[in-house]
TrEMBL record:
Gene: argD
Keyword annotations: Amino-acid biosynthesis, Aminotransferase, Arginine biosynthesis, Cytoplasm, Pyridoxal phosphate, Transferase
Domain of life, per lineage: Bacteria
Protein name as annotated: Acetylornithine aminotransferase
One Gene Ontology biological process: L-arginine biosynthetic process
CDD domains attached to this UniProt entry: OAT_like
Length: 402
């Protein structure tokens, strides 16, 4: 059956507007479309393809497991899930893991657990959830309501209640909002969709202290920032603050859908049998691939390599900006970087994305003012250099067309 980009408009719900080209094959940080044209991938499937495309060890893990056992449901447990959970608890603050299929599902589980924990321990008055403006936590109705971008949650009828928002990095405003009625605070330790906003270290520490003071759980949404993205296995490790619940997805599966919620024994016990579940969550295929991805990423070689690659990106982006003066700053950490546009190019991030695609480079945006890069953690330096040469041509095209 011959399919093209035009087929999308005929058969798919129009909630996406995908690129004109259709990728058909990937290897490492390169992708080829239906016409055989080659692209360099700085998008990483939106911070998912942590080891690039078709990493041989991930392909092998999937193939091996695919020949053994695909699905059981949670009437049974399985060896890959048990191994992956053991490795996640060994590597983090957590004692217990719940598996789902996506970041949104992991966040849904975290929020439900926090509400159930508060109900059991303190009663139904303690139900407020605080999150932050520009935050993003998924597209289920609960998680999109907790997310701090009303454009994504408006227009679907009455929203889940007792959810309040605060300005990120504003500890004074947060202190006014939190109280003994707060059951949980959900935050990204590096805001992704909201514009690649790094947290002020004092802000994060202050949030933790105020959560402790008011007996509220601190939930870190590490769906985008986790699994090596910042040069730490999880971003919290570089902030000196430990959450009560952490959510992980995206990079965790290296491209295979999986989500995980991590927490302590004392908190986990409030999700008793029957209180929450997922038919596919923790399936053997996803867990086998994620275990291998975690094994590879959680090494000194890969994690320290992230820091070196960030330095190379910043150096070369600085040279581009010296020449064209389009960026106000380069934000972010590790392999989650944002080129924030200056006032002269305000609102034009998509123009840079389109111009990059024309130069056979895949990039992302984070809002209207930030061009986002979330490549493989092991992208070769030569691909960074070639990709940024293409990006420079894209920047020149936008500047010249102005």
């Amino acid at each position: 059956m011959n399919v093209t980009r035009a087929t999308f408009d005929e058969v798919m719900v129009p909630n996406y507007n995908p690129a004109a080209m259709v990728p058909v094959r990937g290897e490492g940080s390169r992708v080829w479309d239906q016409d055989g044209a080659e692209y360099i991938d700085f998008a990483g499937g939106i911070a998912v393809n942590v080891l690039g495309h078709c990493h041989p060890e991930l392909v092998n893990a999937l193939t091996e497991q695919g020949n053994k056992l695909w699905h059981l449901s949670n009437v049974f447990t399985n060896e890959p899930a048990l191994r992956l959970a053991s490795k996640l608890t060994d590597a983090t603050f957590a004692d217990r893991v719940y598996f789902a299929n996506s970041g949104a599902e992991a966040n849904e589980a975290a929020l439900k657990l926090a509400r159930r924990w508060a109900l059991d321990k303190f009663g139904e008055e303690k139900n407020q959830i605080i999150a932050f403006n520009k935050g993003f936590h998924g597209r289920t109705f609960f998680t999109v309501t907790v997310g701090g971008q009303s454009a994504y949650s408006d227009g679907f009828g009455p929203k889940p209640g007792a959810v309040d928002h605060c300005e990120y990095n504003n500890l004074e405003a947060f202190e006014k909002l939190i109280s003994d009625k707060t059951c949980a605070v959900m935050m990204e330790p590096l805001q992704g969709e909201g514009g690649i906003i790094s947290p002020d270290p004092d802000f994060v520490k202050g949030v933790r202290e105020l959560c402790d003071k008011h007996n509220a759980l601190l939930i870190f949404d590490e769906v985008q920032s986790g699994v090596g993205r910042t040069g730490h296995l999880y971003a919290y490790m570089g902030l000196g603050v430990t959450p009560d619940i952490l959510t992980s997805a995206k990079s965790l599966g290296g491209g295979f859908p999986i989500g995980a919620m991590l927490t302590t024994t004392a908190i986990a016990e409030h999700l008793k049998p029957g209180t929450h579940g997922s038919t596919y969550g923790g399936n053997p295929l996803a867990c086998a691939v994620a275990e291998k991805a975690l094994d590879i990423v959680n090494t000194r070689e890969v994690l320290s390599g992230v820091e070196a690659k960030e330095a190379l990106y910043r150096e070369l982006l600085g040279k581009i900006n010296d020449k064209y003066n389009v960026f106000e700053e380069i934000r972010g950490k590790g392999m989650l970087l944002g080129c924030a546009l200056n006032k002269e190019y305000e609102g034009r991030a998509r123009d840079f994305l389109v111009a990059s695609a024309n130069e056979h480079l895949m990039v992302l945006v984070a809002g209207a003012n930030v061009v986002r890069f979330a490549p493989s953690l092991i992208i070769p330096d030569e691909d960074i250099r070639e990709g940024l040469a293409r990006f420079e041509r894209a920047v020149a095209a936008v500047v010249e067309a102005k």
